[in-house]
Amino acid sequence: MFPQRLDAPQAYGIAKAMMDGFNRHYRLFRTESARAKHRFETADWHGQQRAQRERIEFYDLRVKECVRRLEKEFGAGAQPMDVWHQVKLHYIGLLVNHHQPELAETFFNSVTTKILHRTHFHNDFIFVRPAVSTEYIENDEPAARPTYRAYYPTRDNMRQTLCGVIDNFQLQREFADLQRDAGSVADAMRARLDKVRLRANFQIQVLSSLFYRNKGAYVVGKIINGFNEVPFALPILHADDGRLFIDAVLFGEDDMQMLFSFARAYFMVDMEVPSAYVQFLRSLMPRKPRAEIYNALGLAKQGKTLFYRDFLYHLKHSSDQFRIAPGIKGMVMLVFDLPSFPFVFKLIKDYFPPPKETTREQIKAKYLLVKQHDRVGRMADTLEYSEVAFPRNRFDDALIAEIEKFAPSQLEISDRDGDGQTEVIIKHLYIERRMIPLNIYLQEAFDTGLSDPRARQQMEHSVIEYGNAIKDLVAANIFPGDMLWKNFGVTRNGKVVFYDYDEIEYLTDCNFRRVPAPRNEEEEMSGEVWYTVGPHDVFPETFGPFLLGNDAVRAVFMQHHADLLDVAFWQTHQERVRAGYVYDVFPYDPERRFPHAAPAH
């Protein structure tokens, strides 16, 4: 029960110190995000990548700082529970009129669960549901930017309106020809609105901050006409001469889903009221969970909070059982899923059969590498959780037996909370969006028969996309390590994404070699590898036998991606990355680019 009186003098002090800790966190997070504008203007791509990596660490650092302060000043861990009840009530009071209340609640949860033992981790002490609404929060200070700006063009002045949209971002870098670019965007918008009557409410709404990622800045908004809303985004890039240009116009929910994909790095966006940005973006992508939108904005802890709330809600409203995930089992990760829920759960096994030589810490380091790296649309984001409790009666017995056999150190089955409910508690796991494993997707095409045009198209598309995925990873300085088809998945949009990270390496750490010529007949006829192989040696010529056993697959692969079997391809890209080159990797089809756009480089 909550206390009826707030009579603990230290409760307000603890609540205020926690709020100070959160405000410091968001101030630093926002400052780093705002600096992305200057890094874009000065083409500081390495600085942008570095900031991207470092910003991910901010949250945990601020939580640790806050925990240390609370222990030092208030002996927080030793305070009785009625004091903690009061702390939460004071904190709710401090959330009134706050511009980031939902993030501050999550910060409170993070700090509180670090201080209180999990047996005290009851709902009374944390924000299981939001206590403060995020609806209609606005910064009313005179100098504050609105969340979005509305523009009211006519068919005739669309170009000039679009020039005004871009000018409002005050980029400190010259455009090569903004009138030309705005004309191209206006033409595309007119084509989209062709023969459509402009209604009384015709307008363009644009979020007030640009979205920065990799080497691009994105204008994000929507066209409103009558009852119709059309989302759009404009990528702004640097030409070879350093001047700016608008590269394309992206339209509709599917294009926006690709831009905000879970397989891409987080954006840098300067937001005073993040919930208002999320609400606007949700209107552009109604099928995208709010958790994924918060993730895309770099607010990953809020994404985790919302994901877990969605998960608990789904558990309450479903009755199917967790099971061993279908597909080929991995040597390192044990994977399970809930058929009705579009995610998979992955835990690291306690031991790995030969030839795997790795450790739990090394695997966690690989997953962290992926989290901090530019995923260029080809590596799935993961949510990492500790001490996750599931209802025991929802677990298939075969799954329990599998965990007991391969990862007993990660499993506890108990009524830890003393509420009469037996739980399966997993010590550490990763959660990833479920995709169709590429080997299964290919097998579906073979099972239908390649004489069927749709099956053949499915096979060809898969093989081409597989090669494209590897080439995008190479451009991002990533060597996947294990390139078997089973380690790649197919998304809803038909994009091929890599998701098995235990052998991932930086491209620049690999030693790409040709297979040496045999010195005698005995070596030539040997079925074994007769030459020395170092720990980082990679022999691209040997990929073929592992990957291209099917003749139809081989024909498509060799037509589009034969260069992946040539050591020169890998060495050339490696040298460019080592020389500091940062590749363009577009979150849209290059065919969408305007004809005047600078060539991709």
UniProtKB/TrEMBL annotation:
Which intervals hold domain Isocitrate dehydrogenase kinase/phosphatase (AceK) kinase?
A: 320-589
Q: Which domain of life does the protein's organism represent?
A: Bacteria
Which residues are involved in binding ATP? 325-331, 346
Q: Does the keyword Cytoplasm apply?
A: yes
Gene Ontology cellular component annotations, sorted alphabetically: cytoplasm
Q: Give every Isocitrate dehydrogenase kinase/phosphatase (AceK) regulatory domain span.
A: 15-319
Name the InterPro entries for this protein: AceK_kinase, AceK_regulatory, Isocitrate_DH_AceK
Q: What is its EC number?
A: 2.7.11.5, 3.1.3.-
GO MF terms held by the record: [isocitrate dehydrogenase (NADP+)] kinase activity; ATP binding; phosphoprotein phosphatase activity; protein serine/threonine kinase activity
Q: Name one GO biological process term.
A: glucose metabolic process
Cellular localization per UniProt: Cytoplasm
Catalytic center at which residues?
381
Its keywords, alphabetically, are: ATP-binding, Cytoplasm, Glyoxylate bypass, Hydrolase, Kinase, Nucleotide-binding, Protein phosphatase, Serine/threonine-protein kinase, Transferase, Tricarboxylic acid cycle
Q: Which reaction does it catalyse?
A: L-seryl-[isocitrate dehydrogenase] + ATP = O-phospho-L-seryl-[isocitrate dehydrogenase] + ADP + H(+)
- Annotated function: Bifunctional enzyme which can phosphorylate or dephosphorylate isocitrate dehydrogenase (IDH) on a specific serine residue. This is a regulatory mechanism which enables bacteria to bypass the Krebs cycle via the glyoxylate shunt in response to the source of carbon. When bacteria are grown on glucose, IDH is fully active and unphosphorylated, but when grown on acetate or ethanol, the activity of IDH declines drastically concomitant with its phosphorylation.
Which family does the record claim for this protein? Belongs to the AceK family.
What's the name of the protein?
Answer: Isocitrate dehydrogenase kinase/phosphatase
Its gene name is aceK
